[in-house]
Amino acid sequence: MATAQAHALIEALPQRESTTSVLLPQASPTFVLTPAVHAVTERALAYLDCGYAVHLAGPAGTGKTTLAFHIAAQLARPVTLIHGNDEFGSSDLVGKDAGYRKSSVVDNYIRSVLKTEENMQVHWQSNRLTTACEHGHTLIYDEFNRSKPEANNALLSILEEGLLNLPKGGGNDGYLQVHPSFRAIFTSNPEEYAGVHKTQDALLDRMVTIDVGHYDTATERDIAHAKSHLPLEDCSVIVELASLLRGMGSGHRPTIRSCIALCRVLAHRARRVDVKDAFFRDAAWDVFGGILRDVSGKGPKPGVDDLMALISELQSGGRKGHIHSAAHSQATAS
User: For residues 122 and 125, what is the distance between their CA atoms, to the nearest angstrom?
Assistant: First the structure.
């Protein structure tokens, strides 16, 4: 926490101009609040209520950003959104000098006396982080580790001492006291992803990290159904197929995004999960075929019929372990 002396020094800072737009999060009618999602939300809110920043870490496509907005909506405060960017410097977050204002006064009241007075002031432009700190917004810093670590250094004093260090021109004494309602939610992708930087330990130590992985199949089924309105039994097959492919060694893919994509397309065309339907066969291969081929190893590459065989097994209610074994043998047969 900031000392009393620091609070006294920054008690009255001038207003800074900002062009930052404000988001007002609202509950989405398609948001699926299952017990698993509710549990994560409640933990995050408990940390935020105590003044800690929350860090949602996990692979792409697991709904971290959507969850961050859902959590922010519970706080009932305006949201400032920042997307991590490798080109960011600290000024892109905090603000910078945006030019100068010059005024001149010429006094010629007495004809024989000419008085000239000039005044020049730095014009400061606040960026989103400063605006969020000043007005007590909820900051959502999406994929923050795509920004270089040094760009995020301003966050260290914000999250620990409740002070934002401003460059010269940003305010009296170069400090901004963070609004007591300010809260921060971060999301990040794993470090092995392309374009992701390693986060400094000092910053991670100032936030509570919640690992967000793939949800259980029941939750993913309900999410796919809510986003597409495809019948639940069809969504269930597609979600189970995605889970099966992950288990075959495809890593984090396919994600729930892939499931939603296929479910939406089928619902839009009034189609069902039908291995004999040409449209479904082609659409399912477009979404999942590349992943199936990736896990096939050095053997013959599987085709549409192999994917349909997996789907048929799922539709018939075959045991997951049996399906996994059959799928692996089909994918790696030589």
Answer: 10
pLDDT of 150 higher than 70: yes
- Considering the entire predicted model, what is its pTM? 0.74
Q: Residues 6 or more apart from 162 whose CB is under 8 A from it?
A: 1, 2, 177, 178
Instruction: Enter the tokens of residue 6.
Output: 């620091």
Q: Is the separation of the CB atoms in 60 and 255 below 8 Å?
A: yes
Res 326: pLDDT:
42
User: What's the rounded Cα separation, in Å, for the pair 238 and 248?
Assistant: 15
Q: How far apart are the first and last CA of the chain?
A: 65
- Tens-digit pLDDT profile for residues 190-216: 888 888 999 999 999 999 999 998 888
Distance CA 184, CA 139 (A): 5
Residue (of 212, 205, 163) closest to 53 by Cα position: 205
Output the pLDDT for position 303.
95
13: left (phi over 0), alpha (psi -120 to 50) or beta: beta
CATH of 4-93+128-211, one of 3.40.50.300, 3.30.1360.70, 3.50.50.60, 3.40.50.1010: 3.40.50.300
Please report, for the chain, the start and end positions of each structural domain, with discontinuous segments joined by +: 4-93+128-211, 217-332
Residues 6+ apart with CB under 8 A from 185: 44, 48, 53, 54, 55, 56, 68, 71, 72, 138, 139, 140, 141
